[in-house]
Amino acid sequence: MEKGLWPAVLGELEVSISRANFATWFKHTSVIANDNGFVTVAVPNIFTKEWLEKKYDTDIKGALERVCDGFKGVSYTVKAQHTQTPEPVLAESLLMATKPAPVITMPQVTSDDNAPGINPKYTFDSFVVGSSNELAYAACMAVAKHPGTKYNPLFLYGGVGLGKTHLMQAVGNEIKRRDPAKRVAYVTSEDFTNEFLSSLARKRTESFAAKYRKIDVLIVDDIQFLARKERTVEEFFHTFNALHQSSKQIILSSDRPPQAIVGLQDRLKSRFASGMMADISAPDLETRSAILQNKAAAQGVMLPLEVVDYLARSVVSNIRELEGALTKLLANCEFRGVEPSLSIAQALISGSNSRHHQKPPSAKVVLDKVAGYFDLQVADLTGPKRDKEIVLPRQIAMYIMRHELGLSFPKIASVVGGRDHTTAMHSVSKIEGKLESDEGLRQELVGIKERLYA
Ligand code: ADP
Ligand code: MG
User: Fold this and answer.
1) How many A from CA of 132 to the centre of ligand 1?
2) pLDDT by residue (tens digit) across 240-284?
3) pTM above 0.85, yes or no
4) Which of 38, 289, 341, 409 has an alpha carbon 20 to 30 Å from 141's alpha carbon atom?
5) Beta carbon of 161 within 6 Å of any ligand 1 atom
């Protein structure tokens, strides 16, 4: 058997399959036999076998045909490798293992003064690439490799929960990995606004300006919220120009392209559109499946294909919800001490299954359901009380109005008892922040949404 056969096949596959998928499914495979063109591939576990047979058979056969003279057929056999434990291998460690150089551990978010706001968990390796996001991915990779030269500014746009923040943060992490001396800053446009306004109040706008102009890579997330805040926009415009002129990289995201941001001055629209624009759309079925497998594997769980398929077909709108559905399933199975199965997935998900075809509920219904879920009165949510037990549900209600109903902040503020619109903004971002890390909150949200669409 030719020694270089399998490496050659992997080389072929690597270019046609996303990096995360390649690492997850091909890392511990090898060819153990080639009998006159009948090739046997060893794989580490049954899940990988199933996955290769179902999803990658054509790719693998195609590659074998190209590199193996007289190729006739391929079969897969489970063979534990001596270096491996029988337990499922964490995708995380598989992904790490694909890196050529020794892995540099990223400093934690907050401890790195040189990279404020950057979260080490968002990397290119953990990002699954599909047709819905490949342009954005490629643009981000190019920027990470050559910041400030190509694609400046880079403008990413697309709906909620489709991976904009993940990709921008991945650029920041990659730039820091390549050159730890680079000053990379990530801010949401709300942080930027608040910081600017407070410097204005304290008459410290000069140090604010100086700080932002020292940065090598400036990442501003959800730029649509800057619109209409005139003084902040003005300051941002100056910062933007100063950085741009000295070839510092700027990366922006928004829920829509610059031209469509209502209330943004034309000069900024054209500035934002002057570099590279890339959109991210809703992922297709295959990408959703791959994301589920990757996320499950990262938690040490290999999901049966039918479960992956069911979840991927049920949750179509965005990836955050897909993660939510998976979290719910895994938590439920762990709690009951059972393996994930199709019937459990169906029982858990069916309630929310058809809702993407329904009309969104009204703001009043949201108040009603959230109050009901937390055993409160609607009047508690709309009233002035600031007790902890009321504040969180109130914030959740506003979050749902924003993300599920797409209401404006002023509208949300008025529905929830005539509050100030900055309160609504603050509440929504508070929940967004918590959802990143708070598993319990995510599940509560899934529960509330189920009631909402029941
Ligand atoms: P956005 O900023 O567009 O609203 P996020 O970047 O916050 O979306 O993504 C929502 C969640 O989905 C995050 O946990 C992110 O890691 C995950 N996610 C999004 N796209 C992908 C992808 N292509 N591969 C893996 N995870 C993804
Ligand atoms: Mg985001």
Assistant:
1) 12
2) 999 999 999 999 999 888 888 878 889 999 999 999 999 898 888
3) no
4) 289
5) yes
